[in-house]
Amino acid sequence: MPSPTGPGHASGKPAKSRLLGRGTWREARYVADLLRTETVGGAILLAAAVASLLWANSPWRDGYAALRDTVVGPHALHLDLSLATWAADGLLAIFFLVAGIELKREFVAGDLSDRRKAALPIAAAVCGVALPAILYVATATLTRGDESAGALGGILRGWAIPTATDIAFALAVLAVIATHLPSALRSFLLTLAVVDDLIAITIIALFYTDSVNLLWLLAAVVPLAAWRLLLKRKITNPVLLAIPALLAWGFVHASGIHATVAGVLLGLLVPVSREIEDDPDRRSLAERLEHKLRPFSAGFAVPVFAFFAAGVTVVGGGFGAALLDPAAIGVVVGLVVGKAIGVLGGTWAVARFTRAELDEDLAWTDVFGLSLLAGVGFTVSLLVGELAFGNGSERDDHVKLAVLCGSVIAALLATVVLRLRNRHYRLVEARETADLDHDGIPDVYQIDERLDPA
Questions:
Q1: What's the whole-model pTM score?
Q2: Rounded to whole angstroms, how far apart are CA atoms 286 and 248?
Q3: Cα(161)–Cα(158) distance, rounded to whole angstroms?
Q4: Are 306 and 334 in contact (CB under 8 A)?
Q5: How high is the pLDDT of residue 393?
Q6: pLDDT band with cut points at 50, 70 and 90 for residue 159
């Protein structure tokens, strides 16, 4: 019988377009390899966050604070920064470099290169950013009590904190609950997080930059151009590439714009060829560069940042004070409620206005579970909190606790929803991995008709 996703139904009527359908085998293989790395990185990230929390609430908490605030770097270059700042400004630039490469590949050869496919993750990501921000502002305003208008203005600086999704953290949750999420949903989660990262870095550049030194910013153009030229000529020597990358980072840092923006710019300048990306037998320069950088980013850079950012004191009234802070309440509501409704609502809107239907393997319950999982915010949320309220401030500590609590609540709710569907996911996985002709490529990626599960 012809597949509903094929040219038409048996009735002769044209089939409706499908949302969250299965992609190509190359896409599925790429996503699977990437998610394995991110899942391991997520486990390390969780371990680093737990270690910092335990140390910061132990009798030796002063040692943690001393380590976090240790200043290293040359004063003459204005790079005498604390270890926590080096982690936020330096190591996270590597995280955003990988995100930039991934974004470039998506725009040139991935789902974002097709306007029809791009509409769904972009709409879901935009709604998943806008609604948490709106709910944060509304919640913080309603719960501010008798605080002055000036104090409210300070609180509202944190509006962007609950807008980010941490893909590594989310995948670590999936690994823990052992759900067999279909490849289409995993791919959607990944693409959603990529668009989310782009929006986040744009917000940081536009709304969390107090002043800009245009001379330093213009100076950054030179090393960025050198980076691009080296890659265009296929010069991939790590030492040679590190020189313009570090100069670009330093100049952007000196300009007043957060240095992580340099990472995204470097990533977007990596050449991407659609012809090579579409060839399953060739590995592009962007893919090779991303493959080398991602383990370091996921396994070291982000966990180290988390170690210095997540260590807040809970004992001695810290948790109780956070519960009464309007900013903290707004963050939890934004992550748990805003993200879920935003991502689900954006997906539903695309289906409603394009008259598309979910793939027959999926239900709206699956989209809701994934939308809840999108509320697992961590890395970028902690970074924005520091930029909004100042690293080490009392409100920043409250917000960090809120990010942790909101992420845990979102993860638990997503676990409940997704586990209810895990039996169905196992059946879908069996069909997606069946290789009856033993050629190394699952049969569903080679034929239009679906395999008979019997």
A1: 0.85
A2: 19
A3: 6
A4: no
A5: 85
A6: very high
